[in-house]
């Protein structure tokens, strides 16, 4: 039996101006970005997506599981995208697979 699925981890937190659907304006909000990754036997293979959880500081409305994209935080997206990168360990499976392929290639050159 192969155990696989998706998990998530926190990529970071910060404050941004976002458009609040309740306040109907651009207000300061706490934004927590989570990184989703695919795993097999609890070993992270590769990152899949990023989501955002937002709490408006003006009215207190909480929104969870929003897509982390340019429409969410507007002009600040390029800075936030660079700041909230997928954690290094979410690439562990890809790295291990690449090292195995490299080892097989080097061994085939030796023979």
Walk me through what this model shows:
This protein has about 110 residues and is α+β, with helices and mostly antiparallel strands. It has one domain (about 5-110). The protein has helices spanning about 70-75, 75-85, 90-110; strands spanning about 5-20, 25-40, 45-55, 60-65. A 4-stranded antiparallel β-sheet has the order 1-2-3-4. The protein is elongated. It starts with a strand and ends with a helix.
From the N-terminal CA to the C-terminal CA, the straight-line distance is: 36 Å
Domains (count): 1
How many runs of DSSP E, i.e. beta strands?
4
Strand content: over 45%
Structure at a glance:
The chain has helices spanning 70-73, 77-83, 92-110, and strands at 4-20, 25-40, 43-56, 62-67. With 111 residues, it is α+β, with helices and mostly antiparallel strands.
Write the layout of secondary structure elements.
Blueprint: E1 4-20, E2 25-40, E3 43-56, E4 62-67, H1 70-73, H2 77-83, H3 92-110
Antiparallel strand pairs: 1-2, 2-3, 3-4
Please tag this protein with its features:
111 residues, alpha+beta, elongated
